[in-house]
Structures are given as C-alpha cells and as structure tokens.
Amino acid sequence: MIARPLVIAAALLVSTGTAFAADTTKRLGKFGEWESFAYTEGSAKVCYLAATAGKVTGGEKGKPTTTYLIVTHRPGAKGMDEVSINGVYGFRKESKVELQVGAMKHSLFTKGDRAWADDAKADKAIVASLQKGKEATLRANPAKGADIAAAFPLSGFSDALSAADKACGVKR
C-alpha cells in the first residue's frame, strides 16, 4: 500500500506537468490536514503545501471527485504563494471557481483540471484569509455532472505554510 503523502505528492506532480517521480519530492511534514513538500525543478527549488478536500459533493456519478487546494512557492521564478485548485474531474471550459474562507470570497479562473487566482495580489489575499480561517469551501462547475461543492479544513495550514516558507527561504 502506498502511503497517503506519496499519493498526494505523485498526484500533484503529475497534475502540474512535472516530469519528476514522487520519490524526488521531500516531504517536509504533515500539519493537521495539510502537508508540505519540496523538490528541485532544474536548478530551482519548488515548495508547496496541499490538502485534499474532506467533503466533496456533486460531479459525475461514479467518477472521482478528488479535489486539492495547493499553495506553491517558486523562488527561482520569483513566484510565492501561488494558489491553485486541482479537480481531477476537470472544470467546465471558461468557468470560475469560487473559494470562500469566512466572509471572504475569491474567484479563480479555470483551465482543464486546474484553477488559479488572477494575479499575485489575489494569491496573497487568499493565503492571508486561509491563515485566519477554519475552513475553505469551494464551488465549481465540473466538465461533466452536477456542480461540485468541497470543504477544506484549515487546521495546520499556517504550520504547513511555515515549513514551505522555511524550505524555500520565503520571508514574511
């Protein structure tokens, strides 16, 4: 049986198009519902934290509805706090994903099975709300099936972010 962290690492690496095997990814730790990882892409270090939605409803009957919430640092490309959603079911073309944390609602654009914030300013606002929140909820239109609703517990988010920050030299 493959350990859950390696499954998450492998799934996320495949979903980002990275040609590395899961064994090149170093697990930085598990913090509540969140896990942090680091790997090297070329000569640049990449760090990320991720959680799998605890509750998911909707989608196409009988098909996977696994949904990940991911925050990535790419210091070599000067990218920090890039927020993305990976819905293995794929999102409806040109749809938006709504991510709500407390009273804050954030809109992410979609392409294939991924969704991203519009810019670095939006990423930072989402990360700030994730640090303060207890749960993030997602609403999305899948490529097929009923609308998706997913919930991500935020217990451990701040500690997982700190571990990724430390591994990639991010100063807050």
Molecular structure report:
The chain is globular. Helix content is 22%, strand content 45%. It has one domain: Invasion associated locus B (IalB) protein (Immunoglobulin-like, Sandwich), CATH 2.60.40. It starts with a helix and ends with a helix. It has an eleven-stranded antiparallel β-sheet with strand order 1-2-3-5-6-9-8-7-10-11-4, sandwiched between helices. It has three helices and eleven strands.
Briefly, what is this?
With 172 residues, the protein is of the alpha+beta class.
Strand content: 35-45%
| Domain module count | 1
Q: Which CATH first-tier class would you pick?
A: Mainly Beta
Rg (C-alpha, Å): 15 Å
CATH architecture: Sandwich
Side-by-side strand order of the widest sheet = 1-2-3-5-6-9-8-7-10-11-4
Query: Which H/E pattern describes the elements?
Result: HEEEEEEEEEHEEH
Question: Which residues sit in consecutive blocks of at least 5 with pLDDT less than 50?
Answer: 1-7, 13-21
Provide a count of the helices.
Answer: 3
CATH superfamily: Invasion associated locus B (IalB) protein
Global mean pLDDT: 89
